[in-house]
Specification:
It contains 23 helices and 20 strands. The chain has 637 residues and is of the alpha/beta class. The relative contact order is 0.06.
């Protein structure tokens, strides 16, 4: 939108190579630029000239390399061509042979020497000695421009009269720093697919209310983000007028810019020789010169201690919730496949992890807002880099800070144990038991989802479900992960490591508890991980367990809470509250830190009573406060 785009290309430099027939004025052009005057005594070849960044229009250091046919052979020239960023092909406008050699000699050679490159180096066609002729018709080079799309532009100049010399080198810098070829297809006269895809994403990010239009406020947000300045109303209206005159559906009836108008505007910039404006926009939204995402844009540097975890910050959660709201077009608190596809159209694809866990959905399997935030809490915990990348692709970086402010690193778990308090919001529970003990059932009951969601995600070896639970009146996210070890007699470190372990057995199978007892004694007895043993009641008669101790005796001997009775009823929510509470207070629910663990069912009831008590105290405080205010008014009156 703006035209002031001078900025330093960090870490960049430009190598400009001048080639062409002998005596067309290559060396004179270089010396006229450096000396700002024409020299009658010109050497055969100029030494390589380095122009400091601060005196170039694009603020990048620039090397200018001369070529002389008498001093350099084809092998040497080919090497120079491969190392150049941009090539200035010089001919004399008064020498027909030098002009013909552009097509018959030079362009074929330049292409031959760049075989294997992903894209040809941009070429600036330079017609020198224009002071020797009055009228130069463009038709003499039109066929060359059409046949070789790598020719960025054509410049007529005069080394003797210093005409267009500095402009020629400015075009050369622009050709490499802001090339047209990746943005615009000359043959088809349309934006390239990658350019169009990038601009469509940028439009959707800037379309904050997701109505398919950019209103004045959204256009100004875009302007400030890309060019760090406000767009005056006169200039904004002028831009809209240009779009409206040239693009039939570019402006909506409500006087907003449509996607079609946005794309047309950038094509107009490119055709007017201002590709740098479009490049400024594209680079600001994280793209490199190949129109792929910059690695540093998706993956900013961060360091996490091995005893810490990573969670969404309030800013990150608010951003993701706003995305959900704006894409939930029918306001049914879930995203249909079409709505979800629209949301992730700003990204390369949807995250793979989204199909690998269970979260709250409606009866059709469409993710709800709570399921959406649950998923991202889980993703941030186990694949922080994925969350950072998607925050960037979804437009979080339009804020003053990058996506690192969308996450937070928790303090060390060791400190949590010392302080006897956890500030974390996401906890992991591993559900372990023998085959057919009911691990999957516990995972499924943790969330409200359709059978289709369960069947689709159940194909993975270890089922994962994520949902929000209340712990002492605070929202926490509990990740329930089913553990199916490759060997029943051995658990890996990763299978053991969690915030709370849920050891489940089938109360109707006499041999089921023995596995649970073995796992506890071998892997958890001497660890600082709270453990809850769960008796899964499948609606069949309870049987005596074939073990030296019955479950109640085993728990009492090992200072564990009595087995939690899990049934297919609404009482199951208590189980997940128990597990989350244990995870958040490991010092309280670990026999190594305190004696016998309190009965967890009573603990959950206590939590609910505490919450009600706090609410009653707050209500009394409000009533007393109002009474005091009324008494004060009565006294004053």
């Amino acid at each position: 939108m703006a035209f002031d785009i001078g900025h330093k290309q960090s870490g960049r430099s430009v190598r400009i190579l001048l080639v062409g027939d002998q005596d067309v004025g290559k060396t004179s052009i270089i010396l006229s630029l450096v000396n700002e005057e024409f020299l009658d005594d010109v050497p055969e070849r100029a030494e390589t000239i380095t122009i400091p960044a601060e005196v170039t229009p694009e603020l990048v250091p620039t090397d200018i390399i001369d070529y002389n046919e008498n001093e350099q052979d084809n092998e040497d020239l080919a090497e120079q061509v491969r190392h150049a960023d941009v090539i200035c092909l010089v001919f004399s406008v008064v020498d027909d042979l030098s002009r013909q050699n552009i097509k018959s000699k030079w362009m074929p050679l330049l292409r031959e020497w760049q075989i294997g490159a992903d894209i040809y180096h941009p070429v600036i066609l330079v017609g020198n000695k224009s002071d020797l002729i009055n009228n130069i018709s463009m038709h003499i080079i039109e066929d060359v421009l059409y046949e070789y799309p790598e020719i960025e532009t054509y410049v007529q100049c005069s080394a003797k009269m210093l005409m267009n010399i500095s402009e020629m080198f400015c075009y050369a810098q622009t050709a490499i720093l802001h090339p047209t070829a990746p943005l615009y297809c000359v043959e088809d006269k349309v934006l390239t697919e990658k350019c169009k895809k990038a601009l469509c994403r940028i439009f959707k990010i800037c379309d904050i209310d997701n109505d398919g239009l950019l209103n004045d406020e959204e256009l100004n947000n875009f302007q400030r983000h890309c060019f760090d300045c406000h767009l005056p109303i006169q200039q904004l209206n002028g831009i809209k007028t240009i779009i409206n005159m040239n693009c039939e559906r570019g402006i909506s009836p409500s006087n907003c810019v449509t996607l079609e108008g946005f794309l047309f505007l950038h094509m107009l910039f490119i055709l007017k020789g201002k590709a740098q404006t479009t490049w400024t926009v594209i680079r600001k939204f994280g793209y490199n010169d190949n129109l792929d995402f910059l690695y540093s844009y998706l993956h900013p540097m961060m360091k996490v201690d091995k005893y810490c975890t990573v969670e969404l910050s309030h800013k990150g959660e608010d951003f993701l919730y706003h995305l959900f709201e704006t894409h939930d077009k029918d306001k049914d608190d879930c995203l249909s496949p079409v709505e979800l596809k629209s949301l992730f159209s700003m990204c390369n694809d949807e995250p793979e992890l989204l199909r690998k866990c269970l979260y709250n959905t409606n009866h059709k399997g469409w993710i709800t807002s709570q399921g959406w935030l649950s998923f991202w809490s889980y993703c941030t915990l186990i694949e922080t880099d994925t969350t950072l990348a998607y925050l960037a692709m979804l437009g979080y970086n339009m804020r003053p800070e990058n996506q690192l402010s969308g996450i937070q690193v928790t303090r060390s778990k060791k400190i949590d144990l010392q302080k006897k308090q956890s500030q974390r919001s996401v906890y992991v529970c591993h559900v372990i038991g023998s085959k057919s003990s009911g691990k999957s059932i516990i995972c499924k009951h943790h969330v409200k989802c359709s059978d289709n969601s369960f069947n689709e995600n159940g194909k993975f070896q270890d089922l994962v479900s994520v949902n929000k639970v209340l712990v002492y009146g605070h929202d926490k996210y509990l990740v329930i992960k089913e553990i199916n070890p490759l060997s029943e007699s051995h658990l890996t470190k990763e299978e053991i490591k969690c915030d709370v372990a849920c050891l489940v057995f089938d109360s109707s199978q006499s041999c089921s508890f023995e596995y649970v007892a073995h796992v506890y004694l071998k892997y958890y007895k001497n660890r600082d991980i709270p453990v809850l043993i769960v008796s899964n009641d499948k609606g069949r008669p309870l049987v005596k367990q074939d073990y030296i101790l019955q479950p109640e005796q085993f728990c009492k001997q090992n200072k564990l809470s009595a087995p939690f009775m899990f049934t297919n009823s609404n009482e199951n929510r208590k189980l997940f509250s128990c597990l989350a509470t244990m995870a958040s207070l490991p010092h309280k629910y670990n026999p190594h830190h305190r004696g016998l663990i309190p009965n967890l069912r009573n603990s959950v009831v206590l939590i609910w009573k505490t919450g009600i008590g706090i609410a009653m105290i707050a209500l009394c405080g409000i009533v007393i406060s109002k009474c005091l205010v009324k008494s004060k008014k009565d006294f004053l009156n």
